[in-house]
Amino acid sequence: MSNLVQRLEITAHPQLEKSLGYRGDSRWVAWRWEPDIDQLVSSDGKTISTGNNMAWLVFLQHDLVQPTLQEYNLGEGDRHSLLLDRHSRNLYIGEETEIQNLLEQPESLVLLTCLDRKFGETWQQKLVKTTKSDHFRHFINLIPVSIVATLIGALGVGTGMWIVPTAQQKLAQKTATNSTVNFEANCYLGSSYKFSSHVGSLTGNKELHLIAAYEATSPQDNGNPSKNTIEVKIQRKNKPIILALSAYAPINWNVTIEPGAVIEKIIINGYDKQTISGVSGIPIEEYNQEMGNSLSEGNFMYQWDSTTDSSNSSSIVTKLEQISQTNLSSFQGCYRGTSFVIK
Predict the structure, then answer these.
(1) Residue of 83, 92, 68 lying closest to 7 (CA atoms)
(2) Which of 174, 203, 224 is at the close of a domain?
(3) 3-7 contacts: CB < 8 A, separation 24 or more?
(4) Looking at the 3D structure of the chain, how many domains does it have?
(5) Do 25 and 151 share a domain, yes or no?
(6) End-to-end CA distance of the chain
(7) What is the domain extent for residue 290?
């Protein structure tokens, strides 16, 4: 295991996970960059959610962190994940798939704490030495207090930090685009049930968001129909939304709409009949195999890479775009879903 997941020679500040946007209570949490949506994503084995991009870039570019992490390309690629033990404050690096497998089997994470490596100075010890130097104090005196305070809050460490040119360039590119879509999902995670997401066009006067799953039950439910509910929460308030929900198995989609969010229409699609609860007064269009109008034609996708058109038929994405006269704004899905959030 030590060849797959390595302990780093830096330890985490007590506010690191909060600064990166994690609000859960699990002992272990991992972060990785998702290039498909240009977004930081966190996972604790139970919930997957988006994080604070700015704080992530500041963290990676800091001169006490960059030498250790630069070879892993955590700011652009999704091959590696950074894992935090919130009890010991130890940080680990490893292949994304290996880290995710560990998070889904918490008992195996105990082995990580048994890694016997000798470490030099911790991150905090190096930080103390750096901040006490005359050069550092002189540099800080040249920075406006407001900027120092902002960056302290963004990263949650006990000193002022600055964004190096690489981070500035990335942030400038992000602020030039429309407000991105943030996700949060709770899926039954396994080696073949990976959460999948995609951000598309956000330029129109309304947005089309698709959530897909194969089923709602987990193996422990033994097909209990009372468990066939997926919670969907809409927090996004930018524009009117067309919400599309698709699954193979019969699912009750319980939709919660936060004040200020506007749902123009809900489209439900499935092999079996799908139902909606939690909302009223919103037009609902229904498609399924029994009615003979299913949008999936036997291919009930729940991963983004399976949404492409074939020579015989159009994908559900193409059909939804034709029905709604709107380009797809976002997709999120997994094999077995429990809850999804669009924000």
Answers:
(1) 92
(2) 174
(3) 4/94, 4/95, 4/98, 5/83, 5/92, 5/93, 5/94, 5/95, 5/98, 5/99, 5/102, 5/112, 6/92, 6/93, 6/94, 7/90, 7/91, 7/92, 7/112, 7/115, 7/117
(4) 2
(5) yes
(6) 37
(7) 183-342
CA distance 311 to 323: 20
- Residue 229 shares a structural domain with residue 277: yes
Say if residue 196 is in the same domain as residue 329.
yes
Is 312 found in the same domain as 212? yes
Q: Are residues 163 and 230 in the same domain?
A: no
Asked if 154 and 222 sit in the same domain, the reply is no
Cβ atoms of 191 and 313 closer than 8 Å = no
The closest alpha carbon to 184, from 241, 219, 220, 236, belongs to 236
Q: Is the pLDDT of residue 125 over 60?
A: no
Q: Which of 10, 316, 332 is nearest to 187 (CA)?
A: 332
* Burial class of residue 267 (count of CB atoms within 10 Å of its CB; 0-12, 13-18, 19+): buried
Are 287 and 245 in contact, with CB atoms under 8 Å apart?
A: no
Please, which residues have CB within 8 angstroms of residue 205's CB and are 6 or more apart in sequence?
A: 239, 240
192 and 296 in a common domain: yes
Tens of pLDDT, residues 166-224: 444 444 444 334 456 777 888 765 545 578 888 888 888 999 999 999 888 655 555 56
The domain boundary residue, chosen from 126, 144, 174: 174
Instruction: Give the E-state strand segments of 189-261 in sequence order.
Output: 196-199, 207-215, 229-234, 241-247, 252-257
Q: Does residue 280 sit in the same domain as residue 335? A: yes
- Our CA dihedral for 128, 134, 137, 141, rounded to 10 degrees, sits at 180
Distances (CA, A) of 204 to 112, 173, 200, 218, 240: 48, 20, 11, 37, 10
Phi-psi label, residue 292: left if phi above 0, alpha if psi -120 to 50, beta otherwise: left
Q: Write out pLDDT tens, residues 260-273.
A: 999 999 999 998 89
- Other Cβ atoms less than 10 A from the Cβ of 239: the count is 16
